[in-house]
TrEMBL record:
It comes from the Bacteria. Belongs to the nitroreductase family. The keyword Oxidoreductase applies. One of its GO terms (molecular function) is oxidoreductase activity. Keywords: Oxidoreductase. Residues 6-197 form the Nitroreductase domain. This is Nitroreductase domain-containing protein. It holds the Pfam family Nitroreductase.
């Protein structure tokens, strides 16, 4: 197997209490800016919380979660109904839920032995949170572009020994995010990415190991015509 950063990177959900310098954050974002986009439109913006501001967000977010505050993202997320997914996609998600010992359904009572839900409610205590926005009038092409930028963030971080977790959890309460920044009203908060130095021996960081969540067989998703 290749040792490419594409294969060695995976999401982390437990981080060391170790800050990332502003200089490194800027370099990660600068590298990600090389993502391709429609006519070089570069439809993304990045808003970053770090240091005391990130810790304040952790506390605020946890309070919203435990109080049962209804989440309402600015970009509609996927829904957890089988009709919205192919059989293969659904099986992949079920494998992930089993590895994490969680369920998307409130009526279920998973063990959550790994503490996934608890850490999630604290935004995984990520030392850095990056919020990525997209124009509210954007097309699906721009969504592709912004996704490429976000993936670039995770790879640029990984190249520097920093782990990342793109997650809905970070953006589920836009009203807690906007007061920290001057985000124009014509931008929608699209995705959040947590950055940090991963705890090596925490089982939360083993959820996405490929033996637990393998990728589909390449021949199942590929057609080559000559």
């Amino acid at each position: 197997m290749s040792n490419s950063i594409l294969r060695t990177r995976h999401s982390a959900r437990a981080f060391k209490n170790k800050e990332i310098s502003d200089d490194i954050i800027k370099k990660i974002i600068a590298d990600a800016q090389w993502a391709p986009s429609w006519c070089n439109s570069q439809p993304w913006k990045a808003y970053v919380l770090t240091g005391d501001a990130a810790k304040k967000m952790h506390t605020l977010h946890h309070a919203n979660v435990v109080s049962g505050e209804k989440s309402w993202t600015e970009v509609v997320p996927p829904q957890f109904t089988t009709n919205d997914w192919t059989e293969g996609e659904w099986e992949n998600m079920v494998d992930f839920w089993k590895a994490a010992d969680v369920s998307p359904y409130p009526e279920d009572e998973p063990q959550d032995k790994l503490g996934f839900m608890e850490e999630s409610s604290w935004n995984f205590h990520a030392p850095v949170i990056i919020y990525i926005t997209i124009p509210k009038n954007a097309t699906m092409f721009s969504a592709y572009d912004v996704g490429a930028f976000g993936y670039g963030v995770t790879l640029a971080a990984h190249e520097r020994g920093i782990s990342a977790i793109p997650a809905y959890e970070f953006i589920r309460y836009p009203k807690e995010i906007r007061p920290f920044f001057n985000i124009p009203e014509d931008e929608a908060i699209f995705m959040g990415i947590g950055l940090g130095y991963a705890q090596e021996n925490n089982d939360l960081n083993k959820i996405n190991e490929f033996e637990k969540n393998p990728r589909a067989k390449t021949e199942d998703i590929l057609q080559i015509v000559k």
